[in-house]
Design a protein that fits this description.
This protein is 35% helix and 18% strand. It is globular. The strands form two sheets. It has a six-stranded parallel beta sheet, sandwiched between helices. Strands 4-5 form a two-stranded antiparallel sheet. It is of the alpha/beta class. It has helices at residues 12-15, 28-31, 34-37, 40-45, 47-63, 68-82, 97-100, 160-169, 188-194, 221-233, and strands at 4-9, 86-91, 106-108, 111-118, 146-150, 172-176, 199-203, 215-218. It has ten helices and eight strands. The protein binds adenosine-5-diphosphoribose. Adenosine-5-diphosphoribose binds at residues 10-12, 15-16, 21-24, 27, 92, 110, 177-179, 181-182, 203-205, 207, 220-221. Its cofactor is Zn(2+).
């Protein structure tokens, strides 16, 4: 019986909630330049542009609603706990749709749009409003140093040690809605294979690292994820 599942989610799980993916034909990076909008250098060069880009994404995320895929993972978390197991939900997404669907333990390796970070004292308060270049830190009062608490290209993702530990303990590795284009997340399937863990991809189109997965199910997350969760939770032994 499956007890410990490691799930890695990407932008594809939030696509049906109306939030754009990055590398699909109309993706975010097809319309905006990631070097200007998702790097520390870009932020230093034009903080007003970057703050407004994330202000709009924060507004969009707050206006979005979780879809059946998010809800199914919340159900999986509760169901595995009932059998003495655990869901380790690692997301590359910076929205809070997993939490709003009821997931209680979510690891945001690329940070969170609904938190800010003070560049002076490092505090990372929950933040739902727009950020400007004058926004003062609520903790140290430093003016103009608040940035979105998201991980930009060239920065270290978060929670890497916890992720590596959870990978080693998993019975099953599942990647949902991710293109496998960005490391270290794209390398987790290889780590799972090295540990002898079964691997499954649930995605709309085959990912860059599709060949690494033992099984791939193509389809919309709002259909494939509930079906997958039903399978796991209906195991009788
Ligand atoms: N259901 C399931 N999968 C979907 C759906 C859907 N409705 N729509 C799109 N997908 C799949 C696409 O086929 C693609 O494989 O989701 C994936 C989205 O890939 P990307 O846009 O590259 O998003 P992601 O993999 O999350 O990007 C990783 O790159 O820019 C950085 O930090 C950013 O976290 C992001 C990281």
């Amino acid at each position: 019986m499956t007890r410990n599942v490691f799930v890695l989610t990407g932008a594809g799980i939030s696509a049906e909630s109306g939030l754009g993916t990055f590398r699909d034909t109309e993706g975010v990076w097809a319309r905006f330049d990631p070097m200007r909008l998702a790097t520390p250098e870009g932020f230093a060069a034009d903080p007003v542009l970057v703050q407004e880009f994330y202000n709009q994404r924060r507004r969009d995320a707050r206006a979005a609603a979780p879809n059946p895929a998010h809800a199914a993972l919340a159900r999986l978390e509760a169901g595995l706990a009932e059998r003495g197991g655990r869901l380790f939900l690692c997301t590359q997404n910076i929205d809070d749709l997993h939490e709003r669907a009821g997931s209680r333990h979510v690891v945001h390796m690329h940070g969170e749009l609904l938190r800010a970070r003070c560049t002076a004292c490092g505090t990372e308060p929950v933040w739902h409003e727009d950020l400007t270049v004058e926004t003062a830190c609520p903790h140290c009062a430093h003016g103009g140093g608040m940035r979105p608490d998201v991980v930009w290209f060239g920065e270290m993702p978060k929670h890497l040690d916890a992720i590596d530990e959870a990978l080693a303990e998993a019975d099953l590795f599942v990647a949902i809605g991710t293109s496998g284009a960005v490391y270290p997340a794209a390398g987790y399937v290889a780590q799972a294979r090295a540990f002898g863990i079964p691997t499954l991809a649930l995605t709309l189109e085959a990912a860059d690292n599709a060949g690494m997965f033992e099984a791939t199910r193509l389809g919309r997350a709002s259909e494939t994820v509930p079906a997958f969760v039903d399978e796991v939770l209906s195991e009788t032994r």
